[in-house]
Amino acid sequence: MKRHGLILSLLFLLLFTAANAQDNGYITHTVTRGQTLFSIAKQYGTTIEIIVRNNPGSAKSLAVGQELKIPRNRQSGSDKENNAVERNGKLYHTIKSKETLFSLGKKYGVTPDEICAANPGISISNFPIGREIVIPQKGKKTKETPSFRLNINPDEKKASIASTHKVKRRETIEKICRKYDITQEQFFSVNPELRGKEVKRKMIVNIPAKSVAPKAEKEQEATPKKEEFITETVKTEPTRFDDGETRVAVILPFLLDRFAPEEQGRMVEFYQGFLMAAERLKNEKHSFEINTFDSGFKEKSLDSLINSGALDNMDIIIGAYYPNHNKQLGRFALEKKIPLVIPFSNRKDELYNNPMVFFVNTQQSSIMNDVTGNFVKRFPDANVIFVEDTIKSNKESFIKSMTAELSRNSIPHSTIKMENIVCEGERDEEEFMNSLRALATDSLRKNIIIPTSSSKETLNRILPSLVLAHALDTTLMKQFQLFGYPEWQVYASQTREQMYEVDTYFYATFYSHFSLSDAAKFQNDFIRWYNRDLQKIFPRYGMLGYDIGYHFILGTILYGDKLAENVNSLDYTPIQTGFKFERIGNKGGMMNKKLYFIHYNREYNIEKIDLDKCEESEY
C-alpha cells in the first residue's frame, strides 16, 4: 500500500508540475534538427523578436535539444487541435512538422498534384513548416500534362524490363552495362530517373530485355554513323509566316559517348526547359524548327558537324558549353553571319571582334558601374559602413568602385573591423549595442552595412549579431540595413529568416524564387512534364533554358537578321534570367548586363527590383 501511495504521490506531483508549466504563461519548446527561429516563430504564431527577448542568447546560436520559452498564444500552433480553418469558402491548412504532400492528400482526400495546382510554389521539395496552403475540393482537375517532351532516344519507350539488379559496392552504371552486355541508352530506357545521376549501393535497378536483333545492333555500333551528332529535330506547323520557318540549332554536350552525370544532368535540364519554351511558342501559333546536336567533349568533336553543312542554313545557333567549342562556333557564325547565343561562358576572348555573339552569362566586372550607380540612386541618404573580416576580401574591385561612386555623390562612408559589429564570445551585449549606436551618427540617414567579402563565413558572422541587435533595440535597428552580393542567394536557404530580420539587399544578374507565381508555375509544369524537380543549383538550368529559348526563338521569328538591334524590345518577363544586351566596342559581341536588386524585407517578403523598370515585384 505504501508503494502504491508513493507512486500516486509522484504522479500527482508530475501532474501538478505540468499544470503549473502551462499556467505560467509559457510553453517549453525543445529544438529539433532543421528548426530555426523563423520556423519556430511560425509554428507558435509569434515573432523572432519575442522568442529572443524571452530566451537570451538564442539569436547567437540554436542547438538541437535546446529548450525555449514560448509565450502562450491562443492562436499558437500547439493549441490547435484542428490545423485547418475555412475562410471565404476555401479550406486553409498550416503545414506542421513531419507532414508531407502525401499525408495531407490522404488526410483531406485529394491528390498531391491537386494540392500543388492550388498552391503555386508548393512541391515535394518545397513544403515548408508553418506555410498556410489551400486545400482544394475533392476531385478538382489539374491541368493536362503536355505531350511535348524531351526524348533523345525515340525508342526508349519501346524497351521492356527483363530483370532487376541490386547495385553492389563500387558498381557504376558503366560496369552494370558491361555485365549485362547492354548500352547505357538501353539502361536509361528502363531507368529514366537515373539519367544524369549515379547509382548507389543496394539500389534496385531495372535491366532491359536485349534487342530482338542483338547481332545487328552490335554491327551498327561498330560502324559509327556519319551524322551521329544529330540527336533530335522538333518541328511546328507553320501558320502565319510567309517567308518560311525559323530554323534554330541547339548544340550542347549531352555526352552520349561517355558517363558524366553532373554535366549531363545540367545540359539535359537546360534542354528540357528549352523545350517547354518551344511548347509555349507553338501554342502561341509561332512557326519554327529546332535542330538539336550533341557537341561531345573532345576538342575537335564539332568538326564533322560544321563540315557537314547541317548548320549553314540556320537562322540562330544556341550553344555550346566548352570554351574551345564556343570559339569554333564563333568563327563559323561570323563567317556565315548567323547569330550565336552562348548561354554559359562569358570569356572576353570570344566577345571582341565578333558582332554575331550574344553572351547571356553576365561578366561581373562589366556591371560594377551599374551596381554602384543604381546604389546611390536608391540610397542617396545612406551612411555606408564597410566591414572587413579576417577572411581576405574577395571584392576589392567592387569596394573600390563603390567607394569612388560614394565620394562623387558626397555620401559618407567608413570602414570598420568585423569585431566592432558582432557580438561573439564573452562580449557584453550593452557594449555591443553602444558600438552600433556610435555608428548611427545621423538619424536622417540609413546605415548600410557592406562586408568586403561575399563568403558564407562572413555572412554567418554578421547575421546573428544583427538579429540580436534588432531584438534588443528595434527602433535603433530600423536605421540599419545590410547590402551584399549575388552569392548570397545560394546561402539563403539556411539564412533567409535572418536576412528578413536585418532588412537585407543584394545585387544579382539573375534571380528566381518559388513563391513567385511564374516560377512556381514553371516548377509545377516541369514536375508534371518530367516527373522530377529542378536540380538545386544556381542558376536553375531548366529556367535558364526556358528564358533563353523563349526570348531568342521569338526574337528571331519577329526580327530575323535585325535581332541585335531589337533584342531588348521583346515584351517578355523572364522567370529567372533577364536580358539587357549592350555591344562591346564598335565591332564586339553583345553582353547581357541585366541587373536586379533583391530585397529581403522585415515584412518577410522578397522584392525583386528591376532597376531598368524601377519596379518591385514582391513575392
Write up this protein:
There is one protein chain. The protein has 619 residues and is of the alpha/beta class. It has 5 domains: 22-78, Membrane-bound Lytic Murein Transglycosylase D, Chain A (Roll), CATH 3.10.350; 82-135, LysM domain (Membrane-bound Lytic Murein Transglycosylase D, Chain A); 156-222, Membrane-bound Lytic Murein Transglycosylase D, Chain A (Roll), CATH 3.10.350; 229-362 and 509-594, Rossmann fold; 366-508, 3-Layer(aba) Sandwich (Rossmann fold). The strands form 5 sheets. It has an 8-stranded mixed sheet with strand order 8-10-9-11-12-13-20-19, with helices on both faces. An 8-stranded mixed sheet has the order 15-14-16-17-18-21-22-23. The protein has a 3-stranded antiparallel sheet with strand order 3-4-5. β19 (581-583) and β20 (590-592) form a beta hairpin. α15 (456-472) packs parallel to α17 (488-501). The longest helix has 23 residues, at 261-283. The chain starts with a helix and ends with a strand. 36% of the residues are buried. Residues 1-23, 74-82, 140-158, 211-231, 237-243 and 615-619 have low confidence and may be disordered.
Short note summarizing the structure:
The protein is an alpha/beta fold and 619 residues long. Helices cover 37% and strands 18% of the residues.
CA-based gyration radius: 29 Å
Q: Could you say which overall geometry the principal axes of the C-alpha atoms support?
A: globular
Q: Count the helices. How many?
A: 20
Low-confidence stretches: 1-23, 74-82, 140-158, 211-231, 237-243, 615-619
| Average predicted confidence as pLDDT | 80
Can you tell me the CATH superfamily of the largest domain? Response regulator
Strand order of the largest sheet: 8-10-9-11-12-13-20-19
Name of the level-1 CATH class of the largest domain: Alpha Beta
Beta percentage is 15-25%
What's the main sheet like? 8 strands, mixed
Distance between termini? 66 Å
Give me the secondary-structure category.
alpha/beta
Q: The CATH topology of the largest domain, please?
A: Rossmann fold
Gross CATH architecture of the largest domain:
3-Layer(aba) Sandwich
Q: Could you tell me the number of beta strands?
A: 23
| Percentage of residues in helical conformation | 25-40%
The tally of domains stands at 5
